[in-house]
Input
Amino acid sequence: MAWLKKPTWRLALCYLGIAILIYFSQPTVVSFAIGLALIVAGQALRVWAAGHLIKNKRLTTTGPYAYVKNPLYIGAITIVIGFCIVGMPPWNLEWSLRNPRLWLYVLFIAAFFLYYMPRKIKIEGDRLREIYGDAYTRYEQAVPDMLPRLTPWHSGDITRFSWAQAVDNSEHGTIMSLSVGLGLILVRALLLS
Output
């Protein structure tokens, strides 16, 4: 049960947001397929990143970290957008500016980008700068926060991807949580039809 996260109010808000997305979901075959593709892509990026990340023991600059400083967050937001698309296709004529579901989705994504991300990037940047000093400063200057570089930054580190490391970083728990969320959306769709 090591993949279970320590309960915090932020985690509680995250699960509340997911519950709201599930409750208001109205998936179609097309929206489910498109959203699922984004969810799988976001989770694949997270697994790739987690397979390189060794927290607080070395500065991770390999794998997706050679392109962007925050691949786990990019994967997470891709997953959230995927869930929003699974829940309601944007091309539906009913989906207009007066639709409260649209504003719930926009609020969920805006909170991530406007509150959570800047705060988390600052806290992590300060912590990594304190631990790794000049090595982190060089990395910070060479690799962007959210928009990936076109070519990888070479730090000299040759660490390779490890499935064991991805599991150690609890990505199997994330996969299980996503599966439960998608299952609940499918159950809701069946109950509505």
In short: Residues 14-192 form one domain. The mean pLDDT is 85.
